[in-house]
Amino acid sequence: MKNIFTICSLLFWFNQFYGQDQMPNARTKLNTEELTKEKENLSTLLSFVSTGNSFTNIGNYAAISTASETLEASIFFLLPNESMFAVNVKAGSPNGIAEIFDEGELNSNVSLGLEYQFLLGKNISVTDASIQDKLNNERDAINKAYDDKIIALASRLSNPIDKKKEFGEIDAKIDAIDAYLAPYNAMRVAALNALGSNQLNLLQQIRNIKSKLEKDKLDNLEQLQYKLRELYNKEQNILLKTSNKSIVNLLAETETPKLDITLYPDLDKNLAKINRYLAPFDAMTVAEYQSKVSAKQKALVAEAHRIRNDIKETKKNNLDSLLDSLNILYKEEKATKLKALAEKEKFIKPDLIKMQYLSIGGKITNKGFTQFIDTLDLENQLTKQNYNSLGLNLSYNSIRNFDGEIRVPKTLQFLSFGVEASLTDNQSSLNQIEIVDSKLIDEESNRTQVSKQNAFVGNYEQDLASITAFLDYYNFLSPTQNSVALHINPKMLFRENEKPTASLLVGVLLPFRKKDSQKVITNLEVFYRLNDFFNTSDTDNSLLNRNVIGIQTSFPFNF
Questions:
Q1: CATH value at residue 107
Q2: What highest taxon heads this organism's lineage (predicted)?
Q3: Confidence of residue 116 (pLDDT cuts 50, 70, 90)
């Protein structure tokens, strides 16, 4: 338990140190359209290091290796909470990589791996900040314009919902923070770092306050729109009754000014006429009204009162209905404009990434190979072995090519370190040999048929507990798109019944991209791996004779 606590503490410390300038990740769920766009961007950016030659899976790719003699494919799925789920499949041929393309059997090192990758922080951007900022400002302007319209609508309801003051105070605070941060946002990375940790922490706290204010405003707007819809559903639109047509004739026969009331009146105009008609009656006392007004006039006055109430109720309901319709219309117009803006963004491909995630995964591997046992009789010396190994892994991963809020590209770096615990065999400790069998076909011509196959020799054991500690580090030599990268991969294996063994891989990665696009189409890595670096297995082979030289070719793709 103490060791587990120590590892978790180190991971937390490293994340705080390495990602201290990372903007906080808003744990908002993405919709389907946002997921598709985000996954496309991630797939493009992760293609920089989607090589298949690192311990953990990253990105979408297919790969082929001459060293491990395997074919490999990996895909990832972006979840609504912006975490990732990766699937990795690997298969090899017992007789070498060439056999895969010659109807060879894919029955050696066939494995299926699953990983869940918890996002710790992510920021995707573009080198040309002015273009992205212009679109961001345009998006903010669209949102603010339509948010202001909805706030204004709420204040015009028959039962007003006055949010102007509340939203005004939030906007004022946000504007004040933007004004305060403006000079710092214009600084270069070096100038920001020179401010010191206390000042940088203060700036981050201020940014956090701004994020909370923006979230509060968004939440209040959503509640306001819900209230508008609720009011609309509760009220019905009351139209003037057709029976009012008979009242028009009655009013026209009186000595009072003629009222021009139709089935489709101008409500305000007709309301004014009715008010003028009723004004002298409203000014009478009850006694005067009873003594001076005839029964016919009383009936007419009562009907006029009813019409006036109908008009007022119609105005009220028509207003609420109109405002709700406008609310829906505004939302549709806003969605249309934001969609058009998103179309513009498709032409701006991100090339900057800063992301950290914690990966937890498992893998099952079926190992099929031939073991040569010289102590057995000739027919049984070549023994088929088949074993399923299980492994669980935990790793911290980081990929970045810029720091701070100012989007100045730096050299791309990918770092991954972690451990894998597994129940496995010791096939990797056996020596591989080539078995040659010959058969005489014709004695006269001395024609001989020769067959060759790979086999392993040594003391083979199964169900061995093992722990592998690993580190992968890619560092591109320059910020340019077609930069060469160096790869370092030290690894330490602790396996039951064996001494710990260390290996070291050093590689050179050559990315090939499409013209005028940062999308990688092929990653070619030439690497040199030293196995059992300290010769703890006490073999007679020299250090150079324990090496492996290989080529790893991967083909990133979008999925």
A1: 2.40.160
A2: Bacteria
A3: very high
Higher pLDDT, 104 or 208: 208
Cα angle 352-356-361, degrees, rounded to a multiple of 5: 130
Kindly give the residue spans of alpha helices, DSSP state H, lying in 156-242.
164-185, 189-193, 197-234
User: Are 370 and 505 within one domain?
Assistant: yes
Looking at the structure of the chain, the number of domains it has is: 3
- Clarify whether residues 136 and 95 are in a common domain: no
- Strand ranges inside 26-131, DSSP E: 61-65, 70-78, 84-92, 108-125
Averaged pLDDT for residues 384-395: 93
User: Cβ atoms within 10 A of the Cβ of 535, count?
Assistant: 16
Cα diameter, the chain: 148
From residue 516, alpha-carbon distances to 152, 217, 348 in Å are 47, 41, 12
Among 513, 141, 515, 136, residue whose Cα is nearest residue 345? 136
Same domain? For 228 and 259 the reply is no
Q: Is residue 450 part of a domain?
A: no
End residue of a domain, out of 199, 234, 269? 234
> What DSSP designation does 184 have?
H
Of 19-23, 221-225, 300-304, minimum mean pLDDT range: 19-23
Tokens of 193: 């770092």
Q: What are phi and psi for residue 405, nearest 5 degrees?
A: -85, -20
Q: How far is CA 219 from CA 84, 133, 159, in A?
A: 27, 24, 21
- pLDDT at position 235: 40
> pLDDT, tens digit, for every residue of 167-189?
666 677 777 777 777 777 766 65
Residue 536 is assigned to a structural domain of this protein: yes
31-35, 308-312, 354-358, 544-548: which has the highest mean pLDDT?
354-358
Contact 537, 503 (CB under 8 A): no
* Range(s) of the domain holding residue 174: 129-234
Phi-psi region of 148 (alpha: psi -120 to 50; beta: other; left: phi over 0): alpha
Quote the pTM value.
0.58
Tell whether 530 and 400 lie within a shared domain: yes
How far apart, in whole angstroms, are the C-alpha atoms of residue 98 and residue 337? Answer: 55
Asked if the structure places residue 209 within a domain, the reply is yes
Whether 386 and 292 map to the same domain: the answer is no
In the predicted model, is pLDDT for residue 100 greater than 60? no
Nearest to 32 by CA among 24, 22, 40: 40
User: How many CB atoms within 10 Å of residue 85?
Assistant: 14
Kindly state whether residue 449 falls inside one of the protein's structural domains. Answer: no
Measure the CA–CA gap between 107 and 331, rounded to whole angstroms.
57
> Please, which residues have CB within 8 angstroms of residue 234's CB and are 6 or more apart in sequence?
none
The pLDDT mean for the chain works out to: 74
393 and 492 assigned to the same domain: yes
Which helix or strand (DSSP H or E) is residue 287 part of?
Answer: helix 286-292
Burial of 166 (0-12, 13-18, 19+ CB in 10 A): middle
Measure the CA–CA gap between 107 and 365, rounded to whole angstroms. 10
Contact 355, 82 (CB under 8 A): no
Residues 107 and 153 in one domain: no
Q: What's the CA dihedral at 73, 79, 81, 82 to 10 degrees? A: 40
